[in-house]
Design brief:
Blueprint: H1 5-30, E1 33-38, H2 45-57, E2 61-66, H3 68-73, H4 76-83, E3 87-90, H5 97-103, E4 106-111, H6 114-121, H7 128-138, E5 143-146, H8 155-159, H9 166-181, E6 185-187, H10 192-202, H11 208-215, E7 240-242, E8 247-248, H12 250-255, E9 261-264, E10 269-270, H13 272-281, E11 284-287
Parallel strand pairs: 1-2, 1-4, 2-3, 4-5, 5-6, 7-9, 8-10, 9-11
Helix pairs in contact: 2-10, 5-7, 6-9
């Protein structure tokens, strides 16, 4: 049977494109693995469970590791019932933390405590979780941590009787700023799933529309718009920018020193150092 050369080339191109897309999708699915570290905080736990379940519904395989405190407060049974991870490990039992980190592509810390944040900020690795976080950073694994349980400005924490001095709170804010400077992505549990998804997708340099089109067999029309992200409108003096981050550091202020206004969301934590830097540079910080 004779086949037109142009038709044959078009057919082969379609087949190759389809096979390539399937390979990419399978590889992407294989990368949906995360080590989930619980350090014992309870604030925001319900939101954390919801976010982790959503990730599982999206095909993620989760391996949970509990610190001693988390093992007592949350318990292994509760984690299994609430999240149903692939495996659960509790500090105290024989655990190869380095291997768990190496076997998974991402690290999620949905319940970061004040204690763990302080240790990591000061490069202290003296227990299972801090050693695993150190290993993740040393091997370039993306680390996403929720600050619900360690934010000094949490309204829930205040209602529970958290009444430390402002200087102590400032130290805690600097710890979060240090974590961010180390490359750890800070978020809150209500935004945890979308934050992990965004980092995951960006690692493949695909927009959400590209990924959804590949998953649907290429039949989705592509909108003539760029992926949603925070973009600086202008570096000219007098302009403003909206920064979509959970913690604004001094580095963020310095980066946009040519602007007169920086807009942040209502729940964003602006560190004391960032506020001082903004005042020094004459930048107004506005909450939406």
């Amino acid at each position: 049977m004779f086949i037109n050369a142009d038709l044959e080339n078009a057919l082969m191109s379609t087949i190759i494109g389809y096979v390539s897309d399937q390979i990419v999708l399978r590889y992407m699915d294989a990368c949906k693995t995360a080590t989930v570290l619980f350090s014992g905080a309870l604030i925001g736990y319900g939101e954390a469970v919801k976010a982790l379940k959503e990730l599982k519904d999206n095909g993620w395989k989760l391996t949970a590791v509990l610190s001693r405190a988390a093992g007592e407060v949350l318990t292994e049974e509760r984690i299994r019932n609430d999240i149903d991870p692939e495996a659960v490990f509790v500090e105290g039992a024989p655990i190869n933390g380095r291997q768990i980190i190496d076997d998974n592509q991402y690290v999620i810390i949905p319940e970061l405590t004040i204690n763990t944040a302080a240790k990591v900020a000061n490069c202290i690795s003296d227990n299972l979780l801090t050693n695993m976080i150190s290993r993740a950073m040393a091997t370039g694994k993306p680390v996403i941590a929720s600050i619900d349980g360690c934010c000094p400005d949490s309204e829930i924490r205040a209602k529970l009787g958290f009444k430390v001095t402002e200087s102590y709170k400032a130290r805690m804010r600097r710890n979060l700023e240090d974590l961010q400077s180390y490359g750890i992505v800070l978020t809150v549990n209500s935004n945890l799933c979308s934050k992990v998804t965004k980092i995951y997708e960006s690692s493949f340099d695909f927009s959400r529309e590209d990924i959804e089109r590949k998953a649907s067999g290429g039949n989705m029309p592509k909108e003539d718009t760029a992926p949603e992200k925070c973009v600086l409108k202008s570096q000219e003096a007098g302009e403003s920018i909206v920064i979509d981050k959970n913690v604004i550091s001094r580095t963020d202020i310095a980066r946009y020193s040519g602007l007169s206004r920086i807009v942040v969301s209502k729940g964003t934590v602006v560190t004391d150092l960032a506020s001082d830097e903004a005042r020094r540079r004459g930048i107004e910080i506005i909450r939406e």
